Request: fold
Amino acid sequence: MRDLPPTVDRLVASILDQFPVHRGFLEQALDGATAEELDRLGRYLDFCIGKGLTPDYLAESYLTILGDTLDEQLYFREHDHYRHSSFADVAESVYHDRDYMDRYMYGLAISTFLWPNHVEMSRFLRRSLPKEKRGRYLEVGPGHGFLLLTAVEVGAFDDYLAVDLSAASVEQTRTIVEHFHPDAPARVEQRDFLTADDLQPGSFDAVVMGEVLEHVEHPEVFLRRIAELAKPDAFVFVTTCVNAPAVDHIYLWRTTDELEAMIAGSGLSIVEPLRLPYEGRSLEESRAEALPINVAYVLAPD
Ligand SMILES: C[S@@+](CC[C@H](N)C(=O)[O-])C[C@H]1O[C@@H](n2cnc3c(N)ncnc32)[C@H](O)[C@@H]1O
Reply:
């Protein structure tokens, strides 16, 4: 394995200790990472350890989401639908379970450096986010906080607001931004995006929402609200997935066409799509076999 920052090395050792068959996958993932990404992962892990977390806990968090996702993939293969379809089904076991939600968000953050499609979606945001645009940036469901951190680092917005309904996510996002950019004009609030009725229509210059739509019962309502809140020339960035089960994915799109028709019907147009097939398969094969497809879009209000 290539030379790694010390805390990445410790994380990898702990993951392999607990799950040795993951070696090949991890080696490939780390070999494909840029030096800057490895450095970023190392600094993230240092930050987590500074908060009192241990490499073993972070490795367990990562393995929790890996194991749970594989379980849900088996369920999906057998039943041809996600295990849950209502928010109430997953609210108690995920969003309101502080311990699980914490592990889920730490694990998901680590996956953004290790899972090829998550890596590609992070890179896509980093390169497509306007670098000089000013004004107001809104993020929905920041979770672990990495997209907001990216926006603060590469963007030049005057004001950053992130809303998330989970206390664990708010804490993780707030602390990551305060740690790395204590002077950033950023606020993180614990609120439901749909009922946050003081957000003014046509007032945001950027709206980013990563991996939220598949977690909600009515994703079209979220898309329409984004279209309503965005200024006509706003940068809009959304990620989600098709046929991609996870413990708390409740809205199932079976094709990218179905999803993209929903986007088009919500007052948003696709400016640039990124459609990522299941690892080792083409998009056509993933479609034919109903395998997970990750998608990210730069959108524009109609
Ligand atoms: C899977 S995480 C996404 C984390 C991160 N944005 C990413 O791209 O990986 C989904 C987040 O959306 C939040 N969320 C779900 N429904 C929401 C709503 N109605 N309003 C605000 N946040 C919501 C959850 O609490 C969770 O933190």
Summary: The beta strands are 136-140, 159-164, 186-190, 204-210, 230-242, 268-276, 293-301.
